[in-house]
Write a structure and sequence with these properties.
- The chain is α+β, with helices and mostly antiparallel strands and 561 residues long.
- It has helices at residues 2-8, 10-77, 86-99, 137-141, 191-195, 234-240, 277-280, 282-313, 315-328, 344-371, 381-398, 412-419, 421-438, 464-480, 507-523, and strands at 107-110, 116-120, 146-147, 151-152, 159-168, 174-183, 203-208, 213-217, 225-226, 245-250, 256-263, 270-276, 401-410, 444-449, 452-460, 483-485, 488-490, 493-501, 528-531, 553-555.
- The strands form four sheets. Strands 1, 2, 3, 4, 5 and 6 form a six-stranded antiparallel beta sheet that branches. A six-stranded antiparallel beta sheet has the order 9-8-7-12-11-10.
- The site of guanosine-5'-triphosphate has 15 residues, from strand 13, helix 12 and helix 13.
Length: 561
Amino acid sequence: MMIKRIHCSLVTRLTLFGLLLILVSAVLRYNILIGFLEKEQAQVAADQQSTIASYLAQDIGYRVQERASYLERLASHFPSALLGDRAAMRSWLQDHQQLLPLFAQGLFVADGNGTIVVDYPPLDGRRALSLTNYPDYERVLQGATVLCPPLNSPASGKPIIAMLTPLRDASGRIVGVLGGSSELNAPGFLDHLQQARLGPTGSFLLVSPQQKMIIASSDEALVLTQLPSAGRDELMDQALAGYRGNGVGIAANGVNEIKAFASVPGTPWLVAVTMPLAAALPTVERTRALIARGGVIQGVMVVLLLVLAYLWFFRPLRRAAALADRMTRGELPLSPLPVERRDEVGHLTMAFNGLLSRLKLHQAELQHQAHHDVLTGLPNRMKLAERMEAALTHACRERNGVALLFLDLDGFKPINDTLGHKAGDLVLQEVTRRLHQVARHGDTLARMGGDEFVLLVTDLGEPYEHGAQVLAEKCIKAVSEPLHLAQGEYRLGVSVGIAVCDGSCDADSLLQAADKAMYAAKGNGRGCYVIAPARASGTGTDLSAPGGTAGTTRPAGSAHS
Ligand SMILES: Nc1nc2c(ncn2[C@@H]2O[C@H](COP(=O)(O)OP(=O)(O)OP(=O)(O)O)[C@@H](O)[C@H]2O)c(=O)[nH]1
């Protein structure tokens, strides 16, 4: 019962409705706001990454260019006379290396055949190496300064990069090669790239598009490794094909990343700055949590507010319902419900009260119809029974008498049959009016059905028969007065049976006695009254006992029309 009540309750429905509203609005807000924030923040992060990539590329370009220029300047100052003298060349290299150690692994000189003949600082395995294996060696012989592809040093085994520039004699003929090599992570070269961090998960890559190789990276493990094969990292593929800028794409490891690319000036390289999308959007994550938290708080608030609103707004309704329940159970009499406020609930209560008053009116009408005759409006047999009980009780208490006059019209049927039922009805109403005039205040005139009436007379003094006789005579006289109907003048009579009692008889016996006496009056020639022979003196006295053919019989004026 309780569960059903909660299930059907307005507050349950309102609460569920409120929660649904919050849920829908939270989902909408979540999608719209998060979508917007993701887009905006990703763009901001991508732009920032582009700036960083561009700065790094410029910086790396500058460092490479600085070394290339230095190497070219050295080459231009190299005394060609030293070429045959290895000790002098080493001394020359030492002086310049110590003066400006831009190449961390030192400087070296190769002869016209491309074989390294001297280096400083001396490195095991470097001398006697042939440069002719380098892909761009031919370009050096044509006069270009070349940035060699990075490789693991055959001498030290560390990732290095070398630069080569031609050495010329006084006539400008290329007679050798001056080179410098540096470890990639040497201080002042690309060490800053390897040490830099972009958040806990971001990374920097220096990429050689030709070799599809990572030259340097903030993740040391990636240095000199190959890029993922084509098709596994769409953005990187685009960058290798020449795209510079930024974007969001799925990396080879399946993570959605923001990537920004910038070309390193003076080199074929490019710098890539990458960061997982989720890590780049901390505000979005916080906003997600905020919306979820806000939704929960809103939900709790709405439930509380709805419960409070229910308690406050519907309190009069609950009171009214409780009162109506008690009225229905019969614990309270039917009465208007209190109207506490002029709101919708008040309106509903007023409407209920209006309905209630109409119901009571209708009930009263039904009650009246159940106890009264429709044609004459007189009390019917049922109502007479009630009045008789009351009259007998009253007579008992007041020690006075009650008389019952049973009246049956004489000659009504011919009028009814000849003039019609409608005229008969008018006659019955006229007879009612006349008998009413005869009856005293407090007496009850009832219609028993057909042309039978009963007059219940109370508060009779001794001898009771006397008062009843007087009334019977008045009734006979009143009924016998001419009836002026549309069809002409007619006359009726009435036969009256009288039964009296001191209040100790029962109502049925009194009625039966009067009825019997009325038949006696009919037998006596109609238009007269007969008093029932026995007079009640105790409960259950049979007033219609044998021997009562006729008590007192008196013709009362003309009885026939
Ligand atoms: N118009 C009309 N007639 C009714 C009504 N109720 C009964 N009657 C008629 O009243 C008549 C009563 O018949 P009786 O009592 O024999 O009439 P009567 O001519 O007075 O005869 P006695 O009583 O023997 O003197 C019948 O014809 C019924 O049809 C009514 O409500 N309206």
